[in-house]
């Protein structure tokens, strides 16, 4: 059973401004995340001292909140690797 994926406005804006190649890679990864967030190929990891998770896609980081009981994944941020954890 898949998860509902919600994307915050800030993350949608960032996604729109990306180049086509990066945007397609990130959208594909987000769709796979909604189908199976436990897939090892997605490279997800919970952030230390936080309820948030991160997913690595090349030089980009997707910061998201995962609520397993409600089966919802909320994309909080899409940022370059260096800025993602600030």
Ends distance: 33 Å
Total count of strands = 5
CATH topology: YaeB-like fold
Morphology call: globular
Please give the oligomerization state of what you see.
single chain
Percentage of residues in DSSP E strands: 25-35%
What spatial order of strands do you see in the largest sheet? 1-5-4-3-2
- Rg, nearest Å: 12 Å
Helix content: 25-40%
Number of helices: 2
Mean pLDDT: 92
Low-confidence stretches are none
What is the CATH superfamily? RelE-like
Largest sheet: 5 strands, mixed
CATH class: Alpha Beta
- Can you name the CATH architecture? 2-Layer Sandwich
**SSE order, as H and E?**
EHHEEEE
Decide which structural class fits the backbone.
alpha+beta
Number of domains: 1
């Amino acid at each position: 059973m898949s998860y509902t994926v919600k994307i915050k406005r800030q993350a949608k804006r960032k996604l729109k401004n990306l180049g086509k190649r990066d945007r397609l890679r990130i959208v594909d990864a987000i769709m796979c995340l909604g189908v199976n967030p436990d897939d090892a190929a997605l490279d997800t990891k919970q952030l230390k001292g936080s309820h948030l998770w991160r997913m690595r896609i090349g030089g980009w980081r997707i910061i998201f909140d995962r609520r397993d009981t409600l089966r919802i994944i909320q994309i909080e941020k899409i940022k370059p690797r260096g800025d993602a954890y600030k």
